[in-house]
Automatic annotation (TrEMBL):
SMART domains for this protein: BLUF (SM01034), EAL (SM00052), GGDEF (SM00267)
Chain ranges of the BLUF domain: 441-533
GGDEF domain ranges (all copies): 1-165
InterPro entries in the record: Acylphosphatase-like_dom_sf, Biofilm_reg_signaling, BLUF_domain, EAL_dom, EAL_sf, GGDEF_dom, Nucleotide_cyclase, Rev_trsase/Diguanyl_cyclase
Key word Repeat present: yes
Residue stretches making up the EAL domain: 175-421
Keywords: Repeat
Record protein name field: EAL domain-containing protein
Pfam assignment, any one: BLUF
Record has Repeat as a keyword: yes
Annotated source species: Duganella alba
One MF annotation (Gene Ontology) recorded for this entry: FAD binding
Length: 579
């Protein structure tokens, strides 16, 4: 006798087991395949929390109806748990049939459901296992377990997708268990280490803060945070690790404050959703603040937008407690979640971090530019500071400066580094801007002609190589490339400038190298080294505009006729020039 789920009318778990056993027996006799498709709704709990259980029940009934509708008569549809359904398919011919079924299921689940006044859209993570899967045999338990593993893999890949079970997937599950175990011992074994990625002023490149990023170095070699952080979250070890990370941030704040006083960079640290769910969090952080004597005003807690979507009221209480202790907050990955303006205004947030995905496309995609411009505008209207993440090129930096974005973080300026290197970077910066320490300063300005037009790849290579060289040699300045001509200014110790210039002069990519000016300098004009290309529209905006009196844009060699004009041109090309 089959049994049914009273809520949805499809088979219940015992009915499903009975149906699956029968299907396996029949398939064995016929030498055919049986497949099991497991369907788990993504974020169903959030819907229940948000709209109430009645609404959740209505949604389940509708999903069950749709699944029943798209299944063939020979296929058994069942509800296996709160938000989990299964379909048993007999006489499966090929995996492609199953993939097509999975696609149809995804489409059916994704179609919005109207419940009273509200429209709900859900997605599903789907796992598929078939009797042909190695080792699956024909036991129903095994098939169910394998389908579940596949479903979990689909969920880990972000949900709204389907995944077949296969042995590699099984291996991955075992590997994750190993890592979860290793993470529990990582603190004790002192395998965790903080790294700091400087956050700089968008215009000047001056370091004003740093994000603490966690690294894990177990015996078998470094494991990427992309891999271990989700495992730490899922296994709960993130609570203990998170407290350790916060302590490291406090210790860094103390150390930097002692070194550089009020001009010391602030420290930004990530807080995970699991930590916010911990009722003891505020007390633990308060103890650490007291222990270390760190200044909460110089500590920024980064929370991600998406984690506030579930149970926002409880999380708000914790965030308010933390803000009440004087800690500052940043909304991380802003733009990727769905927080409404009203929600944002309720949060005790001081900083918005614009997600790297928008920054990456900023040069090519008008849509990304529009998002960034809108987010900057929104942040300003709410009186928040803006930090752009993942800035990797000069073009992105200039674009962001143009929008009025305050701060920048990314490889273009600095990669994450150990604490001692971070201290060195700030020390170097202090030395650069202090005139007393900058004796023997020299600058050189030249123009030249490219032997052949440079491709974007060549320009990129040039940028990368020279940036590393110049950082080592303590050289700042700027290289312009337009209409096949170069103009460059080098600033630094006399020996370093002349030696670098010799190497530049000998480069076969250009010819006709003409020195326009070289002389001792009292101070640096540029705080870092950069390269500007003709399509850097933001630079054009800020640069001198000769078009009013000159029908043709001026070529660099014409500008070079008058050293003073040339000097004025290049020093005006960077928005952070201090006259
Ligand atoms: C227009 C132009 C500008 C350059 N600017 C620099 C520079 O500022 N710093 C630098 O080290 N190399 C610069 N180079 C590259 C040097 O000519 C040379 O290839 C490089 O310094 C050698 O680096 P390596 O010893 O790491 O191979 C430039 C080359 C060209 C064509």
């Amino acid at each position: 006798m089959s049994t049914f789920d009273p809520l949805t009318g499809v088979a219940d778990r015992p009915g499903f087991r009975e149906g699956l056993r029968g299907a396996l027996q029949r398939s064995q006799r016929a030498g055919a395949q049986v497949a099991l498709v497991l369907i788990n709704l993504d974020a169903f709990q959030a819907i229940n929390d948000l709209h109430g259980q009645d609404c959740g029940d209505a949604l389940l009934r509708e999903i069950a109806r749709r699944l029943q509708h798209l299944a063939r008569a020979s296929e058994l549809v069942a509800r296996l748990g709160a938000d989990e359904f299964g379909i048993v398919c007999e006489q499966v011919a090929a995996p492609t049939d199953l993939a097509a079924l999975a696609e149809r299921i995804m489409g059916a689940v994704r179609t919005p459901v109207e419940v009273g006044e509200v429209t709900i859209t859900v997605t599903a993570s789907i796992g598929i296992a078939a009797t042909s899967d190695a080792g699956a045999g024909d036991s129903s338990d095994e098939l169910l377990r394998f389908a579940k593993t596949a479903m979990q893999a689909a969920r880990q890949a972000g949900g709204d997708g389907w995944q077949f079970f296969n042995p590699q997937m099984h291996e991955r599950a075992l590997h994750r268990m190993d890592l979860a175990h290793g993470l529990q011992l990582a603190l004790e074994r002192e395998e965790l280490a903080p790294r700091f990625q400087p956050i700089v002023e968008a215009g000047s490149g001056r370091i004003v803060g740093a994000e603490l990023l966690l690294r894990w170095f177990p015996q078998q070699g470094e494991i990427s945070p992309v891999e271990f952080i989700p495992i730490a979250e899922a296994s709960g070890s993130v609570i203990a690790i998170g407290a350790w990370v916060f302590r490291q941030a406090c210790l860094a704040e103390r150390d930097w404050h002692r070194r550089w006083g009020e001009t010391a960079p602030y420290v930004s640290v990530n807080v995970s959703v699991r930590q916010l769910d911990d009722p003891a969090l505020a007390d633990v952080f308060a103890d650490i603040l007291r222990d270390t004597g760190a200044d909460p005003d110089r500590l920024l807690l980064e929370i991600t937008e998406s984690m506030l979507m579930v149970d926002i009221d409880a999380k708000l209480r914790v965030l308010d407690q933390l803000a009440g202790m004087g800690l500052r907050m940043a909304m991380d990955d802003f733009g990727t979640g769905y927080s409404s303006l009203a929600q944002l205004a309720r949060l005790p947030v001081d900083v918005l971090k614009i997600d790297r995905s928008f920054i990456q496309d900023i040069a090519e995609s008008g849509e990304s530019r529009a998002v960034v411009e809108a987010v900057v505008g929104l942040g300003r209207a709410l009186g928040l500071k803006l930090v752009a993440e993942g800035v990797e090129t000069a073009a992105q930096q200039l674009e962001l400066c143009g929008y009025g974005c305050d701060l920048i973080q990314g490889y273009y300026f600095y990669r994450p580094m150990p604490a001692d290197q971070m201290v060195e970077a700030v020390e170097r910066q202090t030395a650069l801007v202090e005139p007393s320490k900058a004796t023997g300063l020299y600058f050189l300005l030249y123009v030249s002609e490219a032997v052949a037009p440079l491709s974007p790849q060549q320009l990129d290579q040039l940028l990368h190589r020279t940036r590393a060289n110049n950082a080592r040699a303590g050289i700042t300045g700027c290289l312009l490339y337009e209409n096949g001509r170069f103009m460059q200014m080098l600033e630094g110790e006399r020996g370093a400038v002349l030696e670098t210039f010799e190497r530049i002069r000998n480069n076969h990519m250009h010819a006709g190298v003409r020195v326009v000016m070289k002389a001792p300098a009292r101070r640096r004009i540029f705080t870092h080294w950069s390269m500007l290309l003709p399509d850097d529209t933001a630079a054009r905006r800020d640069g001198p505009d000769f078009h009013g009196w000159q029908a043709q844009p001026m070529e660099f060699d014409v500008l070079a006729e008058d050293a003073r004009v040339c000097y004025a041109f290049i020093t005006a090309c960077v928005p952070d020039v201090k006259h």
